[in-house]
Write a structure and sequence with these properties.
single chain
Length: 137
């Protein structure tokens, strides 16, 4: 199975990750409502750009790095949001970002970490309208 995500930020994440050497293509997909055990059992994550549903990134899931959002990692989440928004044309004041991130922490959102990312060249069909879905490999 593969864990698939649609997001308006996928192109930004892909550009940043794929600009690094192959052995250093690690990162995280963002904040998703999902089950940590289920995500950690998946082999790969695929990320699609939301407006046109085009897959741009595929990566192995880093089960150890995938976690429920924790207060101790707040600065890491903020840095990631700033990166996405700096390239995505959706700026927000830092105070608003801090508030949004705190809300995600309070709700127990999931951060999916990945490694060994590569440009996506396959063909995966969406199985529903949800921005998160699973497909057979």
């Amino acid at each position: 199975m593969a864990f698939n995500v649609k997001s308006i930020w996928t192109s930004t994440v892909a550009r940043n990750v794929l600009s690094k050497p192959a052995g250093m293509r690690h990162g995280m997909t963002g904040f998703w409502v999902a089950s940590v055990p289920r995500i950690q059992k998946e082999r790969i994550v695929r990320m699609a750009y939301l407006p046109n549903r085009r897959f741009v990134l595929e990566a192995e899931i880093d089960a150890g790095g995938t976690h429920v959002m924790a207060q101790s990692r707040f600065d890491e989440y903020l840095e990631y949001e700033l990166l996405k928004r700096s390239q995505g044309g959706h700026p927000l004041p830092v105070a608003q970002l801090r508030n949004d991130i705190q809300t995600c922490i309070n709700r127990g959102r999931i951060v999916v970490a990945f490694r060994n990312a590569r440009a996506y060249s396959g063909n995966a069909d969406e199985s529903g309208r949800n921005p998160i879905w699973y497909t057979d490999d």
